[in-house]
């Protein structure tokens, strides 16, 4: 990878991360919150891959692979919880998730 391409990739990763944080803070829909977390994880993965390529090591690729596996498991569990609460409350609003407090 050409060293001149590192900066645009890192800029893209930072934009993706900021959009994920903005979506997580400003939205109240649980599905949008879950997608925002996924967007932040993908931005971190992109950063790991760029730095791994820059340093000439495969360590970042391995960590990014495990982060993708973690994100897939997190999505499956998160969607399962959202579906269970939706069946009970008929809403996906984060404000109505007080049922999870116990």
CATH topology: Helix Hairpins
The CATH architecture term is Orthogonal Bundle
- Counting structural domains, the number is 1
* Overall strand count: 0
Q: Provide mean pLDDT, rounded.
A: 90
With helices defined by DSSP (H or I, 4 residues minimum), what is the helix count?
Answer: 3
Q: Stretches where pLDDT falls below 50 for ≥5 residues?
A: none
So what's the CATH class? Mainly Alpha
Helix content: over 70%
Give a description of the structure:
With 102 residues, the protein is an all-alpha fold. The chain has one domain: Helix Hairpins (Orthogonal Bundle), CATH 1.10.287.3510. The chain is built from three helices and no strands. Helix 1 packs antiparallel against helix 2. The longest helix is centred in the last third of the chain and has 31 residues. The mean pLDDT is 90.
Produce a short descriptive summary.
By secondary structure, the protein is mainly alpha-helical. It has 3 helices and no strands.
What are the defining features of this structure?
mainly alpha, 3 helices, about 0% strand, Helix Hairpins, about 100 residues
Helices and strands, with pairings:
Blueprint: H1 6-26, H2 30-55, H3 59-89
Helix pairs in contact: 1-2, 2-3
């Amino acid at each position: 990878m050409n060293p001149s391409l590192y900066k645009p990739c890192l800029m893209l990763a930072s934009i993706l991360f900021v959009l994920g944080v903005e979506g997580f803070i400003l939205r109240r829909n649980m599905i949008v919150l879950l997608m925002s977390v996924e967007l932040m994880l993908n931005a971190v993965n992109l950063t790991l891959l760029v730095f791994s390529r820059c340093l000439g090591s495969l360590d970042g690729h391995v960590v990014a692979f495990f982060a993708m596996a973690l994100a897939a498991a997190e999505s499956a569990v998160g969607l399962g919880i959202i579906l269970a609460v939706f069946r009970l409350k008929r809403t996906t609003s984060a404000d109505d998730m007080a049922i999870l407090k116990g």
